[in-house]
Amino acid sequence: MCDAEPSEDLEDLFENAPCGYLSMRPDGRVAKVNRTLCGWLDKQPEEIVGKRFRDLLNVPGRIFYETHFAPLLRMQGFFNEVALDLKTSDGSTIATIANASERRGDKDELLFTRLTIFKATERRRYERDLVDAQSTEREARLRLEENNADLTADVAEQVANRLLEKQNADLREQFIAVLGHDLRNPLAAINAGRRMIEKSHPDAKTARITRLMGESVTRMSGLIDNLMDFARGRLGGGIGVEIRHGDRIEPTLAQVVNEIRSSHPDTEIELRFDIPQTVDVDHARVAQMFSNLLGNAIAHGSKARPIVVDAGIVDGVFHLAVSNGGEAIPPAAIERLFQPFYRGDVSPSSQGLGLGLYIASQIAEAHGGQLDVNSDEIETKFSFKLPIT
Q1: Binning pLDDT at 50, 70 and 90, where does residue 323 land?
Q2: What pLDDT does 77 receive?
Q3: Contact assessment for residue 52 and residue 29, using Cβ atoms and an 8 Å cutoff
Q4: What is the pTM of this model?
Q5: Alpha carbon 364 to chain centroid distance?
Q6: CA-to-CA distance for 383 and 373, rounded, in angstroms?
Q7: What is the mean pLDDT of residues 209-234?
Q8: What pLDDT, in 10s, does the model give residues 131-155?
Q9: Which of 17-31, 183-197, 287-301 has the lowest mean pLDDT?
Q10: 117 closest CA partner among 139, 135, 96, 132
Q11: Is the pLDDT of residue 174 over 80?
């Protein structure tokens, strides 16, 4: 008698498949993960379930997730063959290729986002080897140029060094200009097309899609601003400021508050201004810093207490403070708050690259001022102080 054909265990197939499976809830947190992926990452399921998927990625992966993966997934409902580097428990990374698709309900509401993840070590190694080979060639060419320069006289070497410095400065400026042009112009075209579609197709489904596109355009525009400022700060010797003299600063601060209130109508903001004289600052940059501080207060503060804004001049020092209620920031987190790409624990709806506070601190330093933070069980306060004449 022949043995009965064995039946497939679907639970075992999910848990021990030759690829990783992962599903996310609408808030971006992991709902379920199989043992295969847990084994690759050397983590237990409870270390992954409930966490944000973006927290499993390295910094370049987070940037790609915020600017490409998440917006396109929301618009078209799927994404294929995305290269992502996942972090393991010891901090190393594994190269993977991911496919994603949304699972929606009868009323088109998002239920889950499912991801299938495959190891791509050999493919990514080939790509990196190719990049390394190009880098090695460039380094060899540079070493040859340096050896040739060593054979010249001191005067010729000084001239070459000055020329190289000018070329580097020009390259930095070109990089920043290309970054702004190549990112902003396509984004503006997308936004213009979105508005045309919105006007010509006023049905509910189109309205939902164009609204999502509009939110993505706004968020990506902010990300581009932050990335450009980060590039200027790291490649161009710091964020530049253009000081205006003799202008009142209250209208600039009030305009920022009005913009925040329009996008967050349920947030209560109290203003306490006592500025008896003009303050010489770069108004656009101060508005950017102030907006970043207010956005941080909204993301992290208690909804039950208002955000308080204090601005004034005391003993020849202009101060601008933003305070919010909520849990105290741990001392270890305070030490890293003004570092780039540090976000800490934020709500699932808060998305970004963690550059807001870093750029705010750079703007403060560019003015010759200082941005500090104090946090306890009662309130968290960010304070900008600038000596004035």
Answers
A1: very high
A2: 86
A3: yes
A4: 0.47
A5: 20
A6: 6
A7: 70
A8: 777 777 788 788 777 776 666 666 6
A9: 183-197
A10: 96
A11: no
What is the reported pLDDT for 380? Answer: 95
Contacts of 133 (CB under 8 A, 6+ apart): none
Backbone angles phi, psi at 132, to 5 degrees: -60, -40
Report the sign of the C-alpha dihedral through residues 48, 54, 59, 60, in that order: positive
- Residues 211, 212, 217, 219, Cα dihedral to 10°: 120
Tokens of 212: 């999502």
Residue 102 backbone dihedrals phi, psi, to 5 degrees: -90, 145
Residue with tokens 């200082």: 370
Hey, what amino acid is at 281? V
Tokens of 330: 């741990």
Task: Output the DSSP codes for 321-335.
Answer: EEEE-SSPPPHHHHT
CA terminus-to-terminus distance, the chain: 101
Q: Tokens for 134? A: 């190009």
Q: Judge residue 366's burial from the number of C-beta atoms within 10 Å of its C-beta, 0-12 exposed, 13-18 middle, 19 or more buried.
A: middle
Q: Could you identify the residue written with the tokens 């045309």?
A: 196
**Type of residue found at 257:** V
Q: Is 133 left (phi over 0), alpha (psi -120 to 50) or beta?
A: alpha
Side-chain-facing half-sphere of 108: CA atoms under 13 Å: 9
Tokens 């973006």 belong to: 54
